[in-house]
TrEMBL record:
Task performed by this protein: Subunit of the V1 complex of vacuolar(H+)-ATPase (V-ATPase), a multisubunit enzyme composed of a peripheral complex (V1) that hydrolyzes ATP and a membrane integral complex (V0) that translocates protons. V-ATPase is responsible for acidifying and maintaining the pH of intracellular compartments.
Xref: PANTHER family: V-TYPE PROTON ATPASE SUBUNIT F, VACUOLAR ATP SYNTHASE SUBUNIT F
InterPro entries (UniProt xref): ATPase_V1-cplx_f_g_su (IPR008218), ATPase_V1-cplx_fsu_euk (IPR005772), ATPase_V1_fsu_sf (IPR036906)
Subunit structure as annotated in this protein's UniProt entry: V-ATPase is a heteromultimeric enzyme made up of two complexes: the ATP-hydrolytic V1 complex and the proton translocation V0 complex.
Protein name, UniProt field: V-type proton ATPase subunit F
Keywords (A to Z) from UniProt: Hydrogen ion transport, Ion transport, Transport
Family stated for the protein in its record: Belongs to the V-ATPase F subunit family.
Length: 122
């Protein structure tokens, strides 16, 4: 059911300029009927409140199925990301060119590890 609910939905991106530009050039960028974009470029002038509000607005939008967020940006709003427990939109943390990916900080991986024990893989 979750897969069929995600069909025809957009990918949203919250990240540094290089990440957002790459995804927009790849065809991810969209404006909805009310002229809201599906991406946010985070720079040194972006406030944590602004990032949180954009993230929450992406979660509320019916047309978004996946939210990609740079892991270093996700760390700034970790409490908001950890509070999101619905399968759609899925929230995926991705690396940025300035900050390497750290699997120990990824909320999805932490949840997955909690679902399985080491004995499940023997």
């Amino acid at each position: 059911m979750a897969i069929s609910a995600a069909r025809g939905k957009l990918i949203a991106v919250i990240g540094d300029e290089d990440t957002c530009v790459g995804f927009v050039l790849g065809g991810v960028g969209e404006l909805n009927k009310t002229k809201q974009s599906n991406y946010m470029v985070v720079d040194k002038n972006s406030s944590i409140g602004e990032i949180e509000e954009t993230f929450r607005s992406f979660l509320r939008r019916e047309d978004i199925g996946i939210v990609l967020i740079n892991q270093n940006v996700a760390e700034m709003i970790r409490h908001v990301i950890d509070a999101h427990d619905l399968p759609i939109p899925a929230v995926l943390e991705i690396p940025s060119k300035d900050a390497p990916y750290d699997p120990s900080k990824d909320s999805i991986l932490r949840r997955a590890k909690g679902m399985f024990s080491s004995e499940d893989f023997r």
